[in-house]
Amino acid sequence: MNIYKTFFSTILFNSFFFTAIAQVLPAAHEDKVWELQEGFSDEFENLDLQKWTNDPDDWGVWSWEPELAYVDDGTLKIKMIQETHRRNTNYGQNEELYYKSGIIRNAQPMTYGYYEAKIKGCDRFPGASPAFWMYSINAPDPTEDGQAKYAEIDVVELTQREWSSETKDWEGPEAIDMNLHGVAREDGQLVQIRPHSSKDIAQNKWYADFDPRDEYHTYGVLNRVDSIFWYVDGVERGRKENLYWHLPMYVTVSMGLRTPFVKYVNGVRLPVPEETTQEGFPTEMFCDYVRVWEAQPQVNATTEDYTTKKFGKNELLTFECKIDAGSGFLAKEKLTVRLLEKAADGDVINEIIVTDNSIIGKTVGNAEAVFDISSLSTTATLPTGNYYAIEASFETTKNGGEKATLVEEIKNIEIVDEVTALDRFRENIFISPNPVENELSVKGINGEYELFIYDVICKIKIQTTTKMSTSINVSSLSKGLYFIKVVQNDEEYVCRFLKK
Hints:
4 helices; Immunoglobulin-like; mainly beta; Secre_tail; globular; nine-stranded antiparallel sheet; about 10% helix; Beta-glucanase-like; 3 domains; Glycosyl hydrolase family protein; Jelly Rolls; hydrolase; 39 strands
């Protein structure tokens, strides 16, 4: 009995666990449709050595030890220790080295998508640099200019403690580095692309208002065919044109050695024996999760812009949207937007088609379609059950022509004979929150306006002149129903709200 109970409990837990992960969205661009890539993502219930290797070849001054990358209580921990040892390096045989640390690298490579990790830095500063990054392995020599031999995207390198040429001092732990490295063919020769020598192409540095050693933060990068974007806690902190970073790369979490324990001599990173110390060691970085998503082909529009407003036959109906061809893909054909009259069973009765050719060849972009609706019947005069809807789609290069469509259905569009300026003024305004406890805001109105709040017997309780986005304190009002009136340029809007 207990065996069966445990078995079914395990099934239920696993079903819930994977469903929960699948519903998680990136800290940035939550409005898009993403597909979590399970093979590259990990919540670190354990260290899955089918998914990760923790024992790649050592290189340079970095000596990787498998036991220094491990999972403890649902957290990936990467440790660095001071331990003098010898091995062969890229600059000599049987060289003496002084530190060892941990690393995990995904078992398979990936190129385009959104990569995110939740990380807390290590205590030791300076000298140790927690890193979340991606790099290519063993790419063939390029045959054409503009192609890469090596590609590396540093999602984040923490506490590098670089020298600032601006302040003439060493940087503190608040310096967040998000850089690119590469080797590419230009003018028939292989050239190095590095942050300091190719700043416009490869360097991003952001100074945080927090110390990354104190608590967890999310660090992410969006690698697209055209551009690369960096995010900290879901806020964009850097972007570069994607010139060379199109190779398959391996997602990696590691801790690297930095100044004062290493130095550059003739372009080679070497140890600094006289700086060796055990002070601050061992030290650990912490990683709560690694998550990787691919964007799906999609068309995004603000549904409320079309379902909560009236469209007059005396004006044009403009449909605006954003397109995404999906991670690693491009728009193959024009965007086709259809304004449809549909019957209750979904059959198309009538349609107007408008296209936008400007998206062709783009991975993401804005698009629009402008409809002349003067010849259409008003919604009120349509046969019972009929309604107006908008559909939008385009072909992508994914799978030779996979279609991208609207993420959210747009239907029940209201077409009327005429919409006046006063109508537009009123329909754009709304108050939030409703019901309200302490403060409410009036949104959708620009500039200065007058505001009146009445009780149910039309007695003015609050009267003020204010500006857009200014919060109105209503905490002094008793619980109950109230009316709010907004007046601007002799136009007014009135609605009700409930005070909790």
